[in-house]
Amino acid sequence: MKAPKKPLPLLQVSATFQLTPHMIRVTLRGEEIKSIRSGCEGANCKLFLPQATQSLDDFANQLAEGPRPVVRTYTVRYIRPQIGEIDIDFVDHGDTGPASAWARAAKVGSFCGFAGPGSIKVEAFYADHYLVVADMSALPVAAATLEAMPRDAVGDAFFEVLDPDDAQVIDAPKGVTLHWLLHPNTHGPSTQLIDVVTSWDWPKGIVQTCIAGESSVIKALRSYISLERGVPKEDNYISGYWKLGLIEDEHQQLKRTEAALA
Predict the structure, then answer these.
(1) Are 151 and 211 spatial neighbours (Cβ–Cβ below 8 Å)?
(2) Residue that is last in its domain, among 115, 137, 160
């Protein structure tokens, strides 16, 4: 007889904070977080989002019995297992997307389902130089990676943000220079991250990368770094986090299709 499926953890909001004009930090609390390993900042997790007027009991029943609610992928920014708390940073897109709308409306006592986290994106640091590139969707993984680096690491990090005030305080090694680039129109394509990487004064020695953002930008950067620069696959974390014109479910299906054809 098949064992019953274990219900997903239900987390509740313990705090919210407007981190920058277009980034909201939501702190979630639950007993299940106490069993998650410390040091998993930068790993992906899944958030299962309730409808705006849904009660806690109704949503808990939906998580257990179905149908599956709206699911979005996010990055663990900080985790404090000893007190059962996890921080997730949301880009504030207004109320047009379900995750942004949920984060904007979240208050103490709000709730969501949780699954994860997965593996850390950059697990070991051994390079002579580091190259970190991210738009706002990938700022949490980039920041977590920078904060996990050895304190003597050197390199450059290029970030594309919506507003000058979206620049964040990141505890990066002193030898890694942070560059903040402005792109206020997320509905239109941008090539400036491609431009800065292709014009970067490529150093000698081993280069490790942590690069994530809009899919078409990532595709171009992956081609340049892997093919033209010859950086080995094991030295790269390069991932498309979203695609212009697609919602997450459509983008994830596209990634699966492309992976199957590769």
Answers:
(1) no
(2) 115
Could you tell me which residues come within 8 angstroms of residue 192 by beta carbon, excluding any fewer than 6 positions away? 160, 181, 183
Determine contact, residues 186/217, Cβ cutoff 8 Å: no
% of the chain at pLDDT higher than 90: 84
Q: Which of 11, 50, 13, 48 is nearest to 33 (CA)?
A: 11
In a domain, 164, yes or no: yes
Own/partner long-range contacts of 241-248 (Cβ < 8 Å, ≥24 apart): 241/73, 241/135, 241/137, 241/138, 241/212, 241/213, 241/214, 241/215, 242/137, 242/213, 242/214, 242/215, 243/214, 243/215, 243/216, 244/187, 244/189, 244/214, 244/215, 244/216, 247/97, 248/71, 248/72, 248/73
User: Residue 253's domain is classified under what CATH number?
Assistant: 3.40.50.80
Query: Are 94 and 36 within one domain?
Result: yes
Query: Per-residue pLDDT for 1 more than 50?
Result: no
What confidence score (pLDDT) does residue 187 get?
72
What's the pLDDT at 255?
47
Cβ(147)–Cβ(170) below 8 Å: yes
Tens-digit pLDDT profile for residues 227-236: 999 999 999 9
pLDDT of residue 247: 52
Residue 183 CB contacts under 8 Å (≥ 6 apart), including other chains: 135, 160, 161, 162, 190, 192
pLDDT of 186 strictly over 80 = no
Contact in structure between 200 and 209 (CB atoms under 8 Å): no
- Comparing 46-50, 137-141, 180-184, the range with the smallest average pLDDT is 180-184
Closest CA to 121 of 202, 209, 58: 209
